[in-house]
Hints:
- With 717 residues, the protein is of the alpha/beta class.
- It has 6 domains: 2-110, GIY-YIG endonuclease, CATH 3.40.1440.60; 117-175; 194-368, P-loop containing nucleotide triphosphate hydrolases (Rossmann fold), CATH 3.40.50; 378-421 and 483-617, P-loop containing nucleotide triphosphate hydrolases (Rossmann fold); 424-481, no CATH class; 628-711, CATH 3.30.70.600.
Amino acid sequence: MxxxxxxIEHPVSAIxxxxxxxxxxxxxxxGMRIQVDFAHRLCVAFVDEVVYDTKESFDFExxxxxxxxxxxxxxxxxxxxxxxxxxxxxxxxVIACFQAMLPAKLKPKSSKQRIKMEKWVRVHHVPLVMTxxxxxxxxxxxxxxxxxxxxxxxxxxxxxxxLEECQAVEVFEKEAKAAExxxxxxxxxxxxxxxxxxxxxxxxxxxxxxxxxxxxTGSGKTEVFLRCAKEVLKQGKQVLLLVPEIALTPxxxxxVQKRFGNDVAxxxxxxxxxxxxxxxxxxxxxxxxxxxxxxxxxxxxxxQLGLIILDxxxxxxxxxxxxPQYHCRDxxxxxxxxxxxxxxxxxxxxxxxxxxRAIKDVYQLISxxxxxxxxxxxxxxxxxxxxxxxxxxxxxxPQLIEAMRLSLDRNEQVxxxxxxxxxxxxxxxxxxxxxxxxxxxxxxxxxxxxxQSAKCHLCGYSIPVPSVCPSCKSPSLKGxxxxxQRLAEMVSELFPDKKIIRMxxxxxxxxxxxxxxxxxxxRHEADILLGTQMIAKGLDFENVTLVGILQGDAMxxxxxxxxxxxxxxxxxxASGRSGRGQKKGKVLLQVFDDQHYAVRCALTHxxxxxxxxxxxxRHLAGYPPYTYLASILYIHKDKESASEAxxxxxxxxxxxxxxxxxxxxxxxxxxxxxFRICIKSKSLTQLQKxxxxxxxxxxxxxxxxxLQIDINPLNMD
Length: 717
């Protein structure tokens, strides 16, 4: 009897285990998908193990495999092992981890999605007698081996059709591939600084397998990446270059393609399903050897990986916010160890966890302390409390307006950062004090002036702005505060002859919007780039000499132990967009708290001082990197059910030696109430074990309350 042990895709997480089926003559290997009968419904499963000619007996009926879905494994042995490791470390179902690794067209639940196919032709046999035209057509086909049916019939028309009918030519199907423009390769002969040369040498000949590249903004980290990638590719190995945001991908792709041409695969969430599938397969077939992408690209099917680079490694976008809630950095280190590849974690503001390991020599520390231009921007603080007291605007200070005017008069460009989209963040009744709230979330509706709507940025709920207050029927509804829409309107009024580009979630929703908007700004078709945090990092425009940061201290007031770190990162990264060419840069930072250490350290680009101060607070409070955390959310539409389940979870954990916080009620999201337990532990292994046991108990209770587990969460809001 031939057996397969497989993981079945099923919405019930309680079946997270292997199931056994038998097969007869089919070719089946681990990593392939099969179709099976499970509980009287056809399901897709991933083959984990195959056993031939076993004499094993079972006390239950062994069903047959219904259908084999793949001709070859779509997950190799490494990715199968990675999926199991991911399930263990994130306390997630194994099938969920397999799903996370694949493009949509290869996910189990998407097995019905047709892979786009294309008809081709090739010579089947050569007739003994042919007309000269048929001979010419057949010879042309033999010369190229095969061509698309469309091209064949276009070039040879009736002759081609006749050759098909007499079966001299065979029509067959192949997976469709998008037409690819042939890219030219330019070998730039840029002069490297001594720091860059030393950094490249250390990356190519490392002491450790994981390296932390700490380089100030504009220090030439990208050039280090490209030079190292070139050497690794020469060795016949593959390279993965990760960026945190889609907004950064076009700029990085452009630079990488100029060096490596068509050897570059691109992978991020803005691609459609077919494009993702083609890019995935191109790496699997060794057609592409360097990949540029966002978080999901970490799962590309490499088999000779030599270098993994995480650019802006501190960015929270590297953490997956749905099951399995993995951190891309952890997966990169795991894959690096398997492939004996170097992992390079690069940032101007490394995460505290990464830098702490670097200074302890767990990771190798590489420093780039100077800009290539030796020209760090001047950063000035503007206390908005004083500005408002003097009768100034709480949006734009007179100093920032004047600085913008001077830069624009010199035909230079300006970037304005405001990490809040929409026109105004709240709509408030001045009569009764009512604030318009989302009926599905504990969140105020945001006023969007362009379509006169009030929107929830959590669930997408939207209504036309009412003319009267729904509580007191007064016509005294007013928007309060300001977002990117209102800021753009105000700047347009101040500088009516200047072109403004706004980049936020509203303006970048369409495909390729990020690339198009940044390209426009790069060609100086606009004078002012205004947007949310997506413009705060990775952008390199030589003509930008002024960066204005509005509400720079807003994140300090988040209920998150990382609020100071997030503030410092944002301010430093945004400041780094100024003065990247030969012109001197200037940064104006508008804040209400100008004495906070995160703000003061950002003012002088002093990462080490911030690191030391923040680490003292982390140590006192028992937060990472001094401890490991687990966030356990109990979620249900009924508040009492969610609360009771959370209390039961606390009772289950009471015997453990961990420090427990909670259960605390969080804001309602999408009509679901949420209660959280937070666990602190010095031992990651013990923490994972306890959470796993808690998860199993919750499953066995058959509770309808949903459990969401996040090991080492980055967002505690």
